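Lab notebook, design round three. We kept the backbone fixed and only want residue identities now. Task for the bench partner: fill in a sequence for the structure below.
Input structure tokens:
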């Protein structure tokens, strides 16, 4: 299997077996069912190339209303979590500068994700620990529409943290690692 196809398959496994199965995002199942996720794998080690890929994916979303959300999977550029956070902050700033604030939103996923103030081995980090570093580009209009029919969306992050901690570190590691 070519590398790109394998990376996408592992990412899809993670979405199905972790994000949806643990209900970390109550809106993900519908998007997967409708097949409106676009997956792009970027293998470059260059941050600039990754940011260029982000710009290309935003343009793709601009031009194709059938895509609800894009996962830009960065296999090589940001293996270090601090480097990823720098890239993520730059990506958010670029979206703002390009006039996309309120149109698109970025979500953050990384294999070494660690919430500010959390211990590295806190099971809660697995709510955002993906197989590969990713920039998840979401349409704000889709988020708004999904939230219309969901009570207490502000409780989702804490519910996810509580779930992961209840299941424990080994369980959460096993779930994510099984995606490979």
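Proposed sequence:
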């Amino acid at each position: 299997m070519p590398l790109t196809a394998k990376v996408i398959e592992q990412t899809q496994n993670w979405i199905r077996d972790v994000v949806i199965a643990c209900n970390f995002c109550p809106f993900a199942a519908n998007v997967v069912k409708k097949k409106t996720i676009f997956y792009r794998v970027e293998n470059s080690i260059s941050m600039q190339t990754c940011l260029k890929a982000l710009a290309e994916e935003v343009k793709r979303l601009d031009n194709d209303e059938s895509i609800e959300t894009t996962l830009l999977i960065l296999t090589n550029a940001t293996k270090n979590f601090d480097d990823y956070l720098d890239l993520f902050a730059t990506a958010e700033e670029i979206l703002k500068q390009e006039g996309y604030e309120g149109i698109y939103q970025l979500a953050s996923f990384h294999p070494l994700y660690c919430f500010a103030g959390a211990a590295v081995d806190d099971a809660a980090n697995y709510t955002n620990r993906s197989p590969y570093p990713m920039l998840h580009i979401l349409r704000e209009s889709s988020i708004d529409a999904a939230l219309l029919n969901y009570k207490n969306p502000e409780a989702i992050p804490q519910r996810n943290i509580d779930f992961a901690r209840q299941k424990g570190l080994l369980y959460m590691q096993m779930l994510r690692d099984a995606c490979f």
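Keep this in mind before ordering anything: Strands lie at 37-42, 69-74, 104-109, 134-139.
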